[in-house]
Amino acid sequence: MAAHLGIELKRYDRRIRQFIPKYDEMLAAAAAASGRLGPLLDLGIGTGALAARCLQHAPRRDVIGMDADAAMLEQARQRLPASRLVHGDFMRIPLPTAAAMVSALALHHIASPRRKLALYRACRTALRAGGVFVNADCCPAEEPGLAAEQFAAWHAHMRQSFSAREVSRMFAAWAAEDHYLPLATELRLLRRAGFAPEVVWRAGAFAVIAARRPTGACRP
């Protein structure tokens, strides 16, 4: 993620706010939605910023963090020394059982709705009944005009720190790896996977979705 955004790893936690509008507010909403039960699984834990906020709500819960970037995991280890960290691609390795799952700014790297649906189904299987899956990410509007306004606002936020040319170059570079599904599509996929999703925070193109695994025996 740090390399993808062009941020030097040791400066990631300071610089990320230049890229993502209302970053702290988004993480706070995601942490609050994660509840207090453990174990907590963080998909794409990065430097551990979201997991650390989740621990503020429930300091005694166990945290498992997964990330394919070994350098980012080392940053998370320094922040969360008592956590269990797993180096690997959460799309390719089995997910451990958890009472709650969270992810921030990681799932938009999944290239297709089909693969994202497969992940959501794997998350539902690994979650305990009544557990919650929380995703904080870029989820633009489905209507093209509104989506364009949201991305223009995102550009404007970045223009506070970078030139127009730099911002355009960054978005062009990210386009090869970033796949932003509309919020309505994300909700449909989560329902197909057997979740009961709700939008708990929204600001421009960014959203926090809390998706509950029902306690009943029904399957997706």
Describe the protein's architecture and organization.
The structure is a single chain. The protein has 220 residues and is α/β, with parallel strands linked by helices. It has a single domain (2-212), classed as Rossmann fold (3-Layer(aba) Sandwich), CATH 3.40.50.150. 42% of the residues lie in helices and 21% in strands. The protein is built from nine helices and seven strands; from the N terminus they run αααβαβαββαβαααββ. It has helices at 2-5, 12-19, 23-33, 49-57, 70-79, 113-126, 144-159, 164-174, 183-192, and strands at residues 40-43, 63-67, 84-87, 98-104, 127-138, 196-203, 206-212. A seven-stranded mixed β-sheet has the order 3-2-1-4-5-7-6, sandwiched between helices. α3 packs across α4 (49-57) and α6 (113-126) crosses α9. The protein is globular and about 45 Å long.
The CATH architecture: 3-Layer(aba) Sandwich
Number of H/I helices:
9
| Oligomer state of the chains in this structure | single chain
Describe the strand arrangement of the main beta sheet, using strand numbers. 3-2-1-4-5-7-6
Any descriptors?
220 residues, alpha/beta, Rossmann fold, seven-stranded mixed β-sheet, 9 helices
Gist?
With 220 residues, the chain is an alpha/beta fold. It has helices at residues 2-5, 12-19, 23-33, 49-57, 70-79, 113-126, 144-159, 164-174, 183-192; strands at 40-43, 63-67, 84-87, 98-104, 127-138, 196-203, 206-212.
Break the fold down into its secondary structure elements and pairings.
Elements: H1 2-5, H2 12-19, H3 23-33, E1 40-43, H4 49-57, E2 63-67, H5 70-79, E3 84-87, E4 98-104, H6 113-126, E5 127-138, H7 144-159, H8 164-174, H9 183-192, E6 196-203, E7 206-212
